[in-house]
From TrEMBL:
Record organism: Leptospira kemamanensis
Protein name, per record: Uncharacterized protein
Length: 146
């Protein structure tokens, strides 16, 4: 990694986010997703602030992330006001190249404390109507947990 940074000729050190973006562009992964969970333990609530950045030269027309919250025993939890457990961030607006779009998921209340969040899938459609799915092996690369 040091050789790559030196060859860029940058006069200032890169942040971890900048390094991650360079890596993703280099391996052909088109997005960077930052997720900041917030919770109110007393109320057993969960809220997710999500920032999605398009790293490509092609607009993204539809974008979706599917999440699940689980308890300490890794059992999937269903929010009190829902019939199904999935939490979805869905962006239907165009995400232009090199731009960021924010999404808020929740707040959701649970009957018991949630312990972890599992991203099931990330999918998006480019402007040319080609649908892409980030496979499970690459999810950790495109997601930054804040």
């Amino acid at each position: 990694m040091c050789l790559f940074l030196l060859s860029c000729g940058s006069s200032r050190p890169k942040t971890n986010v900048e390094e991650r973006k360079d890596y993703l562009r280099g391996v052909g992964l088109p997005i960077l997703v930052s997720i900041q969970p917030r919770h109110n333990r007393d109320k057993k609530e969960l809220q997710l602030f999500i920032k999605t950045e398009n790293l490509t030269k092609i607009p993204i027309s539809k974008f979706q992330i599917l999440f699940f919250a689980s308890d300490g025993n890794r059992q999937i939890l269903i929010p009190e006001e829902s019939k199904t457990p999935e939490l979805i961030c869905s962006i239907r607006k165009k995400i232009q190249p090199h731009s960021i779009h924010k999404c808020l998921v929740g707040p959701f209340a649970y009957s018991q404390l949630w312990n972890s969040i599992h991203v099931q899938s990330i999918s998006f459609t480019t402007e040319d109507e080609v649908r892409h799915v980030i496979d499970e092996d690459d999810l950790n690369d495109v997601i930054l947990w804040l």
